[in-house]
Amino acid sequence: MDIGFIGTGNVGKALAQLFVHAGHHVVMSHRHSVESLNPLIEKLGVNASAGTIADAVKQPLVVLAVPFNAVRELPAPFPGDPIILDVTNYFPNRDGNIMNLEKHEEATSQFVARQLQSKKVVKGFNTIAMARITAMPRPTGDPQRIAVPIAGDDKQAKNTVKDLIDQIGFDPYDLGGLADSLPAQSDGPLFISVGTKAEIAQRLKAAQAK
Predict the structure, then answer these.
(1) Which residue ranges does the record assign to the Pyrroline-5-carboxylate reductase catalytic N-terminal domain (predicted)?
(2) Rounded (5°) CA angle 119-155-14
């Protein structure tokens, strides 16, 4: 699968490495020059190429790996109506006060979907520290396999992301629609929380009981 990346920080680099290792082709982009990506592309190998943001958003799946406050700066809608994997996190002290997000009147990924005019946004990979993720993959069926909480309103888009998660060595944990993704946000009980499917379910149950 061809996967576009907007953002090449720790999140973008780690996920690109995992996707390339699983046999996918990635198109890396950021707000700086295409040439400045050459060292990263050399490290990722033949299944990676550099491009502009305009190139990245033309891919069938686009990984949104930018600071949350940069979402409003992106051109919308993306051409071809791709699946958008939203790995962003909203931090008020960095991104500014957005009251409907702070009050949980809207999930952050709903905000992203509205800004990018897309019904194919899938929230995922925002709860795991990227410095550790490349050492975490385990084979299918491993009882210690780490689960990745995801949420999305489009069933087909979510299934595609679930398949990708499985391919790179993790179990998807479906929270439901984007409105159900609040537990996975930066102020939720699953943030920076690593565990199996059973452990994720237990944490959610404990949080709901409070």
Answers:
(1) 3-90
(2) 80
Pair 28, 16: CB distance under 8 Å: yes
Q: Is the dihedral of CA 153, 154, 157, 159 positive or negative?
A: positive
62 and 78 Cβ atoms separated by less than 8 Å: yes
- Domains of the chain and any CATH numbers: 2-209 (3.40.50.720)
1 burial (CB, 10 Å; 0-12 / 13-18 / 19+) is middle
* Token pair in block for residue 23: 């046999």
At residue 181, the pLDDT reads 98
Q: Residue 193 and residue 67: Cα distance in Å, rounded?
A: 20
- Predicted confidence (pLDDT) per residue in 61-95, tens digit: 999 999 999 999 999 999 999 999 999 999 999 99
Res 129 pLDDT > 90: no
Tokens matching residue 107: 């999930």
**Residue 77, preceding bond cis, omega within 30 degrees?**
yes
Instruction: Please state, in angstroms and rounded to a whole number, the distance separating the CA atoms of residues 119 and 81.
Output: 9
Strand order in the sheet with 2-6: 48-50, 25-29, 2-6, 61-64, 83-86, 121-124, 147-152, 171-174
